[in-house]
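Quick check before the chapter quiz. The format below is the same one you will see on the exam, so make sure you can read both the input and the output lines.
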Amino acid sequence: THFRTEENTPVRCFESGHTNTIIAVDCTANGSRIVTASHDKTLRVWRLAAPTDDGDDDGGCVCLHVLDGHSSWVNACDVS
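Here is the expected output.
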């Protein structure tokens, strides 16, 4: 999945992590963290990673936390 920052920089995210459909995405006000909700019954908190200087990498996300234990799909997330 690809997203773009406010500066229009592409961000490659979630290539490894969720094992089912991502239903919702939200980000913190400063744009440093993204939260995803999925049908794999988890929420995940991601840190945006800056692109590398070699030009081969668009940047991406690093999973910081997996919030599991939900008994069913997680259909929404909201970050404040």
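If your answer matched, good. The mean pLDDT is 78.
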